[in-house]
Write a structure and sequence with these properties.
This protein has 198 residues and is an alpha/beta fold. The protein is built from six helices and six strands. The protein binds flavin mononucleotide. Residues 12, 14, 17-19, 87-91, 119-120, 153, 157 line the site of flavin mononucleotide.
């Protein structure tokens, strides 16, 4: 059977970011799920300009002018489901992640997305914004998410604590719930897309 392809997107790119820690962790956890293939899409590796195409992505038919956008488009197009790892910047997601989402349209359509977030209140406000954005991109945002709270995040970014196996153990239950729902929706929507393509 062709495996379900999950792309994990790390949504912050600044030096000393926290985002790569939960990003790499959820990537490793997702790889343990049977019947899936997982790819890490770190936005550091996709330095896209601020959106500057003369038309919106829903009208471009995947004909982008920028080579990095073309590369990102191919990766997103190949995926069946997404895990977005997001920081919370001013009660929303990061500009770099919003810009990456804005760049594409058909590549996101009819695919589910789950979230791993972090912040003072677990990045919940960023995820709520992302759920609205993902509906506009014709995605299916799933309910269960991993929210990493401030009492884990802030000591780590201030150098007073480390990201450890214990940190991961505390997040595992929610991660499994999120992954279970993501795979269910991923397989259901993949079957529906395949049927539509016939
Ligand atoms: C521009 C900016 C705005 C922020 N706004 C919030 C916020 O609204 N809520 C929150 O919980 N944390 C906020 N923070 C703190 C971030 O949660 C924290 O810096 C986190 O490490 C950012 O993710 P990153 O390290 O992956 O970039 C903000 C940080 C930055 C840089």
């Amino acid at each position: 059977m062709v495996p379900l392809k999950i792309a994990v997107i790390i949504g912050s790119t600044r030096p000393n970011r926290f985002g790569d820690k939960p990003g790499k962790w959820i990537y490793e956890e997702a790889k343990k799920v049977e019947g899936v293939e997982v790819e890490l899409l770190d936005l550091v590796d996709y330095p896209m300009p601020f959106y500057e195409e003369p038309m919106g992505p829903s009208m471009l038919n995947k004909k982008y002018s920028n080579d990095v956008v073309k590369k990102f488009s191919a990766k997103v197009d190949a995926a069946d489901a997404f895990i977005i790892v997001t920081p919370e910047y001013n009660h929303s997601t990061s500009g770099v992640l919003k810009n990456a989402l804005d760049h594409l349209f058909p590549e996101w359509n009819n695919k589910p997305v789950g979230f791993v977030s972090y912040g003072g209140v677990g990045g919940a406000r960023a995820v709520e914004h992302l759920r609205q954005i993902s509906v506009e991109l014709e995605m299916a945002p799933i309910r269960n998410a991993v929210h990493i709270p401030g009492n884990i995040l802030f000591p780590i970014i201030m150098g007073q604590a480390q990201w450890t196996a214990e940190t991961e153990a505390g997040l595992m239950d929610n991660a499994h719930k999120m992954l279970t729902q993501l795979v269910w929706w991923g397989n259901a929507l993949k079957a529906a897309r395949n049927q539509q393509a016939q």
